[in-house]
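Consider this record:
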Amino acid sequence: MSRENLVKLKCVDCSGINYWSSRNKKKIKEKLELKKFCNKCRKHTLHKEMKK
């Protein structure tokens, strides 16, 4: 993974940064939104891409 394509995924409920992911910024213009497991909330929640 190249460093330019890495993005942080932040939990909507607790605002914890739990995941790093990559995306092709040339092909995907909108921000990522994924349902992932949050260890702090102990449930599956929506994680949104945030600024570096």
About this structure: The chain has a mean pLDDT of 90.
